[in-house]
Amino acid sequence: MRRKLIAGNWKMNGSMAALVELDAIATAATRSPGVDVAVAVPATLIAPATARAPTLAIGAQDVHHGDCGAHTGCVSAAMVREVGARFSLVGHSERRADQAESDAHVRDKATAARRAGLDVILCVGETSEERDAGRAEAVVTAQLAASLPDDAAGPWLSVAYEPIWAIGTGRTPTTADVAAMHGALRARLRDLLGVEAEAIRLLYGGSVNDANAGELLGAGDVDGALVGGASLTAAKFVPIIEAAARLG
Hints:
Layout: E1 4-9, H1 21-30, E2 35-40, H2 46-52, E3 57-60, H3 77-82, E4 87-90, H4 93-98, H5 103-115, E5 119-124, H6 128-132, H7 136-147, E6 157-161, H8 175-193, E7 201-205, H9 213-217, E8 224-227, H10 234-247
Parallel strand pairs: 1-2, 1-8, 2-3, 3-4, 4-5, 5-6, 6-7, 7-8
Helix pairs in contact: 1-10, 5-7, 7-8
């Protein structure tokens, strides 16, 4: 039985003052012991967020694929681990698009994060054009296969399906579409990893909010959610945690 995971992604938002939101989020996590709760904050906030909410899994939104070197402006997995990060996102579509990250690059980042002792949330997703052309499952499962690190294992790896056209737009796929995609991802993981695939959590992301969380989390093979804008405040994020707790 895979535990539900509700992970927030603050993206390039937040400040020291905003960390007060973590108080109520941490309380909700404590009241929902059957749900794992995590928040990926900007790198500048990892240390203070960890200090303020030590019971929450605080993580990074990205790491460099190298351990050290002449990479101005980059941050290694070991660096974020040292200041309290427990996990990192890799392969978010905004980085794939804005920073031209390839599947191979994402795979190297996942490997580096694991090498440093971090858990990983690996993101995959299709464009609206790819979905409209009937290629969504083929594109996303190929992206998964090419991004997956060699030693992928359930205790430290989750996969987040985020259709690019749903991120921050208010649009969401139907629950049938989500279930179909998650089923395709699970099947591809089984092809690649065998029995280990059963332990890897599949998260849905893309305009998840308190109004649609229960329905989305109840779709087939959905083990949690990766939440963007709704994770910035406890008022919007806590109801998603509570929806996951009700589903068990």
